[in-house]
Amino acid sequence: MDRRRFLAAGSAALSLPVAGCRTAPSADASSTDHSATTATSDGAAKTTVATPSETTDNADNIRIVVNNGRSEALDVDLTVSSGDAVVFADSITVSAESSRSVDPGIDEQGGYELTVVVDGSEYRRPFDVEGYDLEMGSNLIVEIGTEIRIPMEE
């Protein structure tokens, strides 16, 4: 077998396992239709289109996860604020050695602050929500053990 045929056969064999892995996206693949058609009070159809800077239906992607590492159940007060406005407030009970997840309903970019009250002690964690967080999801994790920590997971 000469060298050229050997190299041609080798390159064909190597490209076979990855065939189809790289394809060019279609024109429609990069665009998502965010339009909605609703009826107005006079019965006419009204179409609205959400742009990337507007609110989308990704509110369930921002979550608050409370991990209770203690041996007793805890009552935890959670408040999310943006400026002077309270965006979310709830009191939850987290069983011993377990976790609970809540949806604070955050669906807009901006600066927020999470306030956590456990056993009468208050902990605050400012955080920013950006487009990436709304697209891909992020979690604020409240870790309750001997200390309380509030990291953000993207």
Shape: globular
The computed structural class is: mainly beta
Helix amount: 10-25%
CATH architecture name of the domain at 59-153: Sandwich
By CATH, the superfamily of the domain at 59-153 comes out as Type VI secretion system, lipoprotein SciN
The amount of beta strand, in percent, is over 45%
CATH class of the domain at 59-153: Mainly Beta
What does the model show?
Helices cover 12% and strands 45% of the residues. By secondary structure, it is mostly beta strands. The protein has a domain at 59-153: Immunoglobulin-like. The termini are far apart.
Which helices and strands occur, and which strands form pairs?
Layout: H1 3-15, E1 35-39, E2 45-49, E3 62-68, E4 74-82, E5 85-94, E6 98-102, E7 110-118, E8 121-129, H2 131-136, E9 138-144, E10 148-149, E11 152-153
Parallel strand pairs: 3-9
Antiparallel strand pairs: 1-2, 3-6, 4-5, 4-7, 7-8, 9-10, 9-11
In short:
With 154 residues, this protein is mostly beta strands.
List keywords for this structure.
single chain, 154 residues, mainly beta, four-stranded antiparallel sheet, globular
